[in-house]
Amino acid sequence: MNKILKRMAAGILTGALCLTAFAGCGSTGSGSQGGSSADGETTGKKFVIGVAEAQANDEVTTRRAYFENFIAPTYNVEFIFSEVLKDDAAVKTFIENCIDSGADAIIDFKSNSSQMARLCEENGVVYTVQGIPDMAPDLMEGEFPLFSGWSGANNDHLADLFRNWLEENTSADGSEGFLVSTSLASQGNVQHIEVSRAILEGLQEKYGLTYEQPIEDLVYVSETTNVANDKGLLITLYPGSPNKDTWLPGISSLLQSGKYKMFLSSGQTYNQTATVVNEVEAAFGIDIKVASIAAFSTTLDTAFSTLDPNGNPSVDFVTVKPSSVLNASVFAATYNALNGVIDTACRDENGKPANFRFNMISISSPEELAKTKGWDDAEAGTWIAGKEFVDQMLVTTNPDVTAASINELMASVDVDSIAEMMG
Amino acid sequence: MTATSSANTSGKELHLNWKERVDVIRSNRWFLMAFPFAMLALIILIFGGATGGNFFRVSVLKGILSQAIIIGTCATGVSFIYSNGNLDISIGAVLGMGATLGVLAYNATNITPLLILVSVGVSLGLMAFNCTMSVVCHIKTITVAIVVTQIYSAITTLLIGGAGTIDIAYETSSMLEDGGFRYIAFFGYFILCLVVYHFTRIGRELRFLGGNETCAQQTGMSSGKATYVSFLMAGLGVGLAAVFSVIDVSAVSVETGSGLGMDVMLATVLGGMSIFGGSRSNAYAGLIGALTVAALNKGLLMVGVPSAFIQGIRGVIFLALVYMNSERRDLLPSRMQF
């Protein structure tokens, strides 16, 4: 028995040794691609930045590649990426673990919370979020000297893109039936709220509708709702997280009723619904138009190159996030704060934390998509926000940088300017 | 003899292959008790060495306890349900609803004790309802749990409304945190559970019922009464965990408690206890398991393992721990045997 115990102990210790060795190997390759700057951009301290993620999708994959393969070696920083964080408690745990790991800053793509800002303040860590100030008044009004600000899509512009497309692509009498996925609008997701609102406003303007409930209330519904209106048009709102198992069966059963020829989604869902849309089109002999949010990816290429039973692409309209522009802005805000210029580069004219906005890009045909080939391509490493672009946002390469100049640069990004930048 | 070697047990020369040797060790009652503690200690030692001693810092160890406290509290309470041979995966939804009503009550009155009383009271009430549905209507507890999870989650979503989250004043959560409420309440509850579980008649009855319900009933033990006791003890733990979760992030959201049922099961199994109950169940397994998970997550991040690998490494370690802790049908009394 003693022999057996000894051998077991030896086995456990050997395993422990292997684990330690493996863990040690991980530390050298974690996050960044090497310890020294590829371009010799900076020679000072190597900053460690934790990145809290809410999802695992094309956009997150692209972001990770952008940070790991481009930003980290170019600007001598290291990233610690989270797993998918399901709630604020998980974000807090990740931030605490990053702080114990020596992180200098946190970029938060999940929470937009003064609680996280406070945790970072207490530990001398810079905090940057993706989101908008409206959803976090505490963060706007509170005293958070290390909070560098918000970055995100210009939601007014995004809403306009949807509204314009609806104006041109809906029928004269509105008889097609509209299914609207409001996604997480009911839980406060600003992008989903703005897109849902734009869809309802677009339909209202086009058909001169009067809704029985205010649009402000409709976008927040938390259950499937037929929007009562004076013209009797069929407009159904379907809330819920597309990441949850229950979302697809619910939306499928509505589509399978054959009543809807227009499916409008405030989230990135076109890939999830492609099969059921095809089946319904084939079964009922109808053409369902699909509009959705998207990211540059092979999934989007496939969607535009796959034809439905009517010979149309399986998605008709998408608004695409130039994700490297977003990622460059959150990095710039963080990096400038770490380099001691938070008061100039991360504050607006009123001294409040900066609010960086970029414009989404609309695509409605394979030809338009073809023009964007190579934009934010993770495999090729061709980024819209390349070195020249990012350099304009960093105090180390542009000492005169301010929050206003960063916002000006971001606002200048559109299809034409990107085409020019990408050559 | 190539694959075997000899070992001397009870004065007789036995020939055991490696698998039989592992089984002999795994079946030792002291090994079963010590293994989860040993693994936790080993994980801490390994990460301590790998981080040059940083992992031994008080702030890091306190962080591990802090991160494990919500799952640990729930798992300690739910061990009563498991030991009785029942399963309940609705605790996440119960916690969410308890926390939501507690926050609403607090925000309406600004009375801090009301946050605690309402959260605990609601959780106790909901767990009592689950139990009643099972005992009175003779529906399996897991079936009741699956159904009520949907109901409780829907009610919570409606209560929280469009914003998806309700905040409480940071000063309140900070006061409860800094005043040590979490640790005092947790350790008080943990000691209560240990005493009830291991040193009282009802605790022994629970384990006996979990091991062999028929035999236990023939000796006069009441399954219904034991089920109520186990659900109420769990309800108390879930209620406290609801308060802890509110203190943790100064808010409650529609996501509060999501996935908690599975996390508690994992912690329980990693802590060395079968979720199917039995006489060798214990009240501390969930806490040990929760500490193991928290230490592993923090340690892997601190030594720089990328998140994609963390999931894989954690999975392999969990599988190994579960194998070493798993129930042996031919050696241990369990519901499966009878």
Q: Explain this structure to me?
A:
- The complex is a heterodimer of chains A (about 425) and B (about 350).
- Chain A is of the alpha/beta class and about 425 residues long.
- Chain A has two domains: about 5-150 and about 320-360 and about 380-420, Response regulator (Rossmann fold), CATH 3.40.50.2300; about 155-320, Rossmann fold (3-Layer(aba) Sandwich), CATH 3.40.50.2300.
- Chain A is built from 17 helices and 13 strands.
- Chain A has helices at about 1-30, 60-75, 90-100, 115-120, 135-140, 155-170, 190-205, 215-220, 245-255, 270-285, 300-305, 325-340, 340-345, 365-370, 385-390, 405-410, 415-420; strands at about 45-55, 75-85, 105-110, 125-130, 145-155, 180-185, 225, 235-240, 260-265, 290-295, 315-320, 355-360, 360-365.
- A seven-stranded mixed beta sheet of chain A has the order 7-8-6-9-10-11-13, sandwiched between helices. Chain A has a six-stranded parallel beta sheet with strand order 2-1-3-4-5-12, with helices on both faces.
- In chain A, helix 6 (about 155-170) runs parallel beside helix 7.
- The longest helix of chain A is centred in the N-terminal third of the chain and has 28 residues, at about 1-30.
- Chain A starts with a helix and ends with a helix.
- With about 350 residues, chain B is mainly alpha-helical.
- Chain B has helices at about 20-25, 30-50, 60-85, 90-110, 110-135, 140-160, 170-180, 180-200, 200-210, 215-220, 225-250, 260-270, 285-300, 305-325; strands at about 5-10, 10-15, 165, 250-255.
- In chain B, the strands form two sheets. Chain B has a two-stranded antiparallel sheet with strand order 1-2.
- In chain B, helix 3 (about 60-85) runs parallel beside helix 8 (about 180-200) and helix 7 packs across helix 11 (about 225-250).
- The model of chain B is unreliable at about 1-5 and about 330-338 (pLDDT under 50).
- The interface between A and B is large, with 46 and 58 residues.
